[in-house]
Design brief:
Layout (H helix, E strand, L loop, with lengths): L1 H22 L10 E2 L4 E2 L12 H15 L9 E5 L1 H12 L7 E5 L9 E6 L4 E5 L7 H18 L7 H17 L5 H5 L3 H8 L4
Parallel strand pairs: 3-6
Antiparallel strand pairs: 1-2, 4-5, 5-6
Length: 205
């Protein structure tokens, strides 16, 4: 599995570098994947890029497929950059939707605070909503994209879940794995400890 992860990270690295070089040949990320025998470690410096190219989305999809043994998908999501208030409103609307439809939320800081929702995925329109100030310039910000891309996989592949919380489990695992490539974690970056994640990813009924 670590070999697949190494390959996928290398693919993502080359894709981002190629995308950025097309904009500014003098500025591109430097990423040196390494392995400790069990997992891939990487450090990176990302140049600002406002809207990920189709190649970047494809690379994230390739990493998710390799890392979590998911089928390959060919359909990229749409990306929308909106104010935080818009994301909160969409999140509230999603709470009123039937389970498994509507919006999959990535509300990070606390277990229940709607105001902390940072990104959303809309099943119906295959759209990822990101904050309007999102730049994709750090592993932290890119982890939001990784999380919502998992929901895109779940939607396109027609995966079924017993409850909305269960649907979040793989998304948080993938986000934490991504952050781990850069020596970061959900606990450190988002304040999500093991108990908070359990609450967010378990069906309580």
């Amino acid at each position: 599995m670590w070999k697949a992860s190494l390959y996928a990270v290398a693919l993502l690295t080359m894709t981002i570098a190629g995308s950025l070089c097309a904009e500014d040949p003098a500025s591109f990320p430097s990423i040196r994947p390494q392995t400790d025998g069990t997992q891939v470690r990487a450090k990176a410096h990302f140049r600002h890029f406002r809207n990920p190219s189709r190649q970047v989305l494809a690379a994230v999809e390739a990493w998710l497929s390799a890392e979590f043994d998911l089928p390959t998908i060919r359909e990229h999501p749409l990306l929308r950059f909106v104010p935080a208030a818009k994301i909160a409103a969409l999140r509230f609307r999603g709470l009123l939707s039937p389970p498994g439809t509507g919006f999959a939320a990535n509300d990070q800081k606390t277990a229940f605070a709607q105001g902390d929702t940072l990104a959303l995925y809309d099943d119906a329109t295959h759209t990822i909503y990101l904050p309007e100030d999102w730049k994709g310039s750090t592993p932290f910000e890119l982890s939001l994209l990784v999380h919502e891309m998992v929901h895109h996989f779940q939607n396109v592949l027609g995966l079924k879940h017993e409850c909305p919380q269960q649907r979040e489990k793989l998304a948080y695992v993938a986000q934490d794995h991504w952050l781990g490539l850069f020596g970061q974690s959900l606990a450190d970056d988002f304040g999500l400890d093991a108990f908070s994640l359990l609450v967010k990813t378990t069906c309580f009924y």
